[in-house]
Amino acid sequence: MTPQGARLIDRAAVRRNFRRVAATYGAADFVAREVDARMQERLNYVRLTPEWIVDLGCGPGLSLPGLQGRYPKARCLGVDGEPAMLPRQISPAGWRHWLPEAAKTTNMPQFLAADACRLPLCAQSADLLWSNLLLPWLADPLAFFRESLRCLKTGGLLMFSALGPDTLKELRGGFARDGFAHTQRFADLHDLGDLLLEAGFADPVMDMEILTLTYPTLDKLLADLRETGATCAMQDRRRGLAGKTLRQNLEQHYETLRQQEKLPATLEILYGHAWKPAPRITADGREILRFKPRR
Length: 295
Description:
- The chain is built from ten helices and seven strands.
- The chain has 295 residues and is of the alpha/beta class.
- Helix 6 links the parallel strand 4 (126-132) and strand 5.
- The chain is 30% helix and 21% strand.
- It has a domain at 3-164 and 185-211 and 269-275: Rossmann fold, CATH 3.40.50.
- The chain starts with a helix and ends in a 20-residue tail after the last strand.
- The protein has a seven-stranded mixed sheet with strand order 3-2-1-4-5-7-6.
């Protein structure tokens, strides 16, 4: 997925969708919780003792208890682009020079409403950047990776999850190429790996798994999408009502997929992590050479 193509995302619609479900999101988004648990298991194989953790796209902050349980001495900041999603928030002005000076007196997570591609955090401030299923809603993944690199300390880790192209393929297939977007345009695993390298990260690792949800009815599937704010927010989505014929065609398509009285919904989950390497050039453009001493 190129950054140019991703700019077709309607950012106002993204915020509006999540604002609408903010009060009940924590009780509905079981997919994000499952993916978060699988991401946290991957930390078992990572050597890291973070002092500062930033959760980008944190929503109501449901990832933070697990991260704090794993790293009890770390301070945590949750960042989300929609203020209504946050359990509480502080003024961005108070975090212009965040880390290491701010919030040293408490381990209670702090929350901040901010654009993940333009964070009001100082450079080289965080040890771990965590991002669970935020990427499908961002206009420019490369800008996100570059901003993440800026905010990480040397040796710091970015760990994230995203959705791959097969996500909700059954739903897209039911609209018979009517010319409108009906889901987000999801990133390819290899494209994200390339963007990590382009942004300046080292040693990116990407992997993927397929999760298949099952539903008794199409209405239940569509309700789950609405209740988690995960409805289509592309610029070229259908703006008016779909109409009776289109809905009947969609239902007929899904019935051809029914197995054991259940309708499938495919989720292609992408997992990635990468490290911030030591700089190769100085701020004024001079190359840094490193020599290993003889033993």
